[in-house]
Amino acid sequence: MKLSDIWAEYVPALLTGMVTNFEISIIALLLGLVVGAPFAAMRFYGGRLAIAVSAVVISLMRAAPTFVVMFFLFNVLRDVTVFGVKLQMSGMMTVAVSLVPYAAAYTADAGVEALRQWDRGSHLGALLFLPNITRAFFVIVMASGAAAAIGVPEGISVMVREAALLPTLGDRLMVFAVGIVLFGVPLQLGLALMRWLQRELGRRIVRLA
Amino acid sequence: MRLRVLARLLLAVAALLAPLAAARAETPDEALEALLTEARQQCAQPSDRLEKILCGKRLRVGVRDYYPLFGVREGGIHVGFEPDIARALAERFGVETDFVRVNAATRIPLLGEDRIDLILATMGHTTQRDGQLRFIRPHYYQSETVVVGPKALRIGDWNDLATRTICVTVGNVSNAQMVSHNTRLMLFDEAGVLPDRLKDETCTLAAQDDSFFAFYFTDRAFAERFEPKFGFAQVPWGMGVTKTGSDKLARALDLLSQIYHRDGTFLQIALKHRIRTVFLEDQQRIWQRPDCNTADGSGNDACVLPALNLELKPTPFAASVTAFEDWVEKRLGIDITLPMLKTQSAYSLFLNGVANSLILIAGALVATFAFSILFGFSLGSDFKPLRRLAWLVTMTLQSSPIVLTLVIAAAFAHALLPYSAAVALGASILALGLTNGSNAGQAVSEAVISLHHEGGEKGMTLFVHALRRSATSIVAFLINAAKGTPAASFIGAPELLGALTDVSSFSSGRATIYCIVLIFYTVVVMIVVWACGWLRAWLEGRQVPA
Fold first, then answer.
1. Which ipTM value was assigned to this complex?
2. Tally of structural domains, chain A
3. Does A63 touch chain B if contact means CB atoms closer than 8 Å?
4. Of A67, A79, A180, which is closest to B399 when you measure between CB atoms?
5. What is the CATH number of the domain that holds B441?
6. DSSP string, B241-307
């Protein structure tokens, strides 16, 4: 594979595909916050029953494999009619919704911890919720590559498609290496930002204490 | 004496001419003419459909109205290969045609409801359909499933397709055959989307009837980018009439089909509509043969094609499964379908899928634990080159989405070894173990460094304490590895998700199938979570919970 082909065709296509990964992740995270926050509140403020119910639901959401949930939604929910309305999610929305159990379980766990800190009067400690959610966002970005399995034109599917056309393992590895760099740079930058945020907040908490 | 000789001579001549006369009567043309003449005389009390058609002067034909080249409706007029055949038949009968729009789901019910006399609508002749209607022989066309892909992609045969994803439609008769060659299927409800998914590169390969793709290959832009790679699963297409009350109609159509093949009528109509003619050219040669060009030719196995047999062997307990489905629907009102228990091939895929999933999960857990120790040791090592190499590998693995890591592992595996289920499972275990093990190993190394700073311990004792300190992280990544195992289906590992996706491609019951997969994996992951609680307690040196 020529270097000029990589820059002229493959990289722009991959970057376009990666935009889809980020779109999926933003939708999944927002939905995860909406679904997970009430469970965090139930676990923190609720009675025994509410705590038990939220614990069971969060355990189930944590245990559900994203890949299987995605296939379930893709193959089952597209045939479901609710109150006379046929549910027809796009491929991108299907992947985003399949990531919601993970995002919601993570939100509930981080949310309970944040509420606990807030209750103790450590408002900065509660703010650690933000870097934690940032970490979840990048995990979701990486997991959104599963979308390739149902034909969503995101980053991984661009790589797999490009690699399929190449005859040698060396050429394919070149395609994959570019992909790892392009996925890795925002991931590592994001994680570095998260670590910096955590450090800064930690320092301020110590100073205030 | 002379008179006796003359009489004997006349008898001999008559005896010689009699078989010739009989043979002449046995040509399909004469048999058809005789049949039509007889049917036209029954108008006072028509009983057979042929008599009703001839006396009513109308032939009601079920045709497709959106199957390019074969049957489409343009400005209210039915055009294509099949409507033109219908017109030729009607002309021979001396009647008018009434076209009725049908699709794959409605064509046989409409025939049963006496709303059409004849189906002429891209219908494959299978042994299952033989029980529902009477197929006309010889068949008027034959299609095959063709794999279509980009010209740049080198695909020669089944070996080149192993582990590749092929876009197909649910229920396609050839899906089971593709599954048996280790391909992965991406399912779509409608064939119409396949060319678009090829064009927008959602699908690298698609498989569908060659008759379907024929139209798209008339588009220059499509033909420049894609080509048929190879074909398989030939299906003869037949006209269909009802099994009862249509004996004479069926006989007339049998004879007409013979004549149209022999005289090239079908071939001329096909050429007019620019569809593939290889089959029709072969058929013309067959029906011009003296042994086939007889009134009984359509019953001669040497001349006609057999129906495609797609019946799958049922399991010994298929009837009990059906009874159970009915019981659940009656008692609980839940419509469940368990196709994986009803046929031998589906049952075998299901059992192998469960076994492979369990092997995959166990392997991924062992590999994750082993790699966490290896990476933990390497990242916490005092030997700089080893530490730097381990850091580089960890960063690379962390920057690669798990699906991509699986694809890379599969690329290496297939470059070194031919495809097999064991190779796909091995590559998946390696990828899952490396990804999760490197992350867990990083936690172990951080524990090593922190213990190092605290001082006091060295060597093996320090490492064991580091494992204890990082037990929570190790367990978290073990659970993550178990949760990630279904993604192995993406590289062709025959675990439960992949196996049941294959089953759903050639049977009904997708909702039940995916509910079962979801429940299976959720339960297995919960068991892993529970077991990991014990492991964490053991690693932390605590007493395991009772």
1. 0.89
2. 1
3. yes
4. A180
5. 1.10.3720.10
6. E-SSS-HHHHHHHHHHHHHHHHTTHHHHHHHHTT---HHHHHHHHHHTSTTTSSTTGGG-TTTSPPP
